[in-house]
Each structure stands twice: as structure tokens, then as C-alpha cells.
Recover the amino acids of this structure.
């Protein structure tokens, strides 16, 4: 299969659909998109300091505090003393939104059906791409945040 002439547009459409699904999923479980994104980060990484959660979500200190307050009040996270430095706190995930699996199931099922159409070798390439693209996007986001911080100094 060759690269389509409009590969950039196809990829942007894909990214847009993923983002729109994330927003719709968050709304379906009565969360904001950033709140659901933060819960996903905590689910994947485990407990984080508020500063690290802020960096990973792209939020500054004030919005990060409000985010953690909302998630704590909803019963999804808790603040606990950092075992390495009792003056600090870490944010631990303790629950997921009720109904989240049901909300995500239709997209997961559709994507699984698409992936099953590929050979094992093709699936290996797809998952290699997902892993490497995630790293590339994270690094690019870190660079953008660094550039933005330098410009505001």
C-alpha cells in the first residue's frame, strides 16, 4: 500500500477524531476533557507529584491545583504524603469514573475490529508506530513548552 497523496490531511483527520472522541467520552462521564486526560496519565504512570502532573497535562500551578481538587472531590484521586519527602504530596489515582469502560467500549471494539484485519506482522508495525509516535509527541510537546516558557521569561 502506498502513501496517499493527501497523507497529511488523512492524519490530521485521524488526530481530530481521536481528540473529539476524548472530549465526548469525558462529557459522557461528567468530566472535562483535561480531567479525563489527567486520570489517564495517572492510570498509566501511577502516583505523581502535582508538579509532574501539571507538566504532563501542560497546566500551570493554579489550574493543576484546581484539577486535583476536582478529581479529589469526585473521589478519583487522593493526596498523600510523599514517602521520600514528607513535606511534599503525591497524587494517587484511587478510582475511575463510573461507566467509563462502557463509554469507551464502542470505539475500542471498532478499533480492535480494524486492527484484526491486519496480519500479525502489520499489527506489530502498528503497535511499534503507536509506541514511537507517543514518545515523539511527548518530546515535541516538551520542546514546545520549553520554548513557550523561554519566550515568556
Amino acid at each position: 500500500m502506498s502513501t496517499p497523496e493527501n497523507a497529511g490531511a488523512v492524519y490530521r483527520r485521524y488526530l481530530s477524531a481521536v481528540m473529539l472522541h476524548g472530549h465526548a467520552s469525558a462529557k459522557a462521564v461528567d468530566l472535562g476533557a483535561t480531567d479525563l486526560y489527567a486520570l489517564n496519565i495517572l492510570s498509566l504512570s501511577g502516583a505523581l507529584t502535582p508538579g509532574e502532573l501539571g507538566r504532563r497535562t501542560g497546566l500551570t500551578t493554579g489550574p493543576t491545583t484546581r484539577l486535583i481538587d476536582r478529581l479529589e472531590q469526585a473521589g478519583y484521586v487522593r493526596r498523600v504524603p510523599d514517602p521520600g519527602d514528607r513535606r511534599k504530596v503525591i497524587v494517587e489515582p484511587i478510582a475511575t469514573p463510573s461507566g467509563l469502560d462502557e463509554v469507551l467500549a464502542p470505539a475500542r471494539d471498532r478499533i480492535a475490529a480494524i486492527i484484526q484485519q491486519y496480519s500479525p506482522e502489520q499489527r506489530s508495525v502498528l503497535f511499534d508506530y503507536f509506541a514511537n509516535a507517543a514518545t515523539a509527541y511527548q518530546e515535541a510537546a516538551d520542546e514546545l513548552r520549553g520554548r513557550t516558557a523561554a519566550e515568556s521569561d
User: Anything to note?
Assistant: The mean pLDDT is 92. The helical segments are 7-28, 33-45, 50-57, 61-73, 100-116, 120-152. The chain has six helices and two strands.
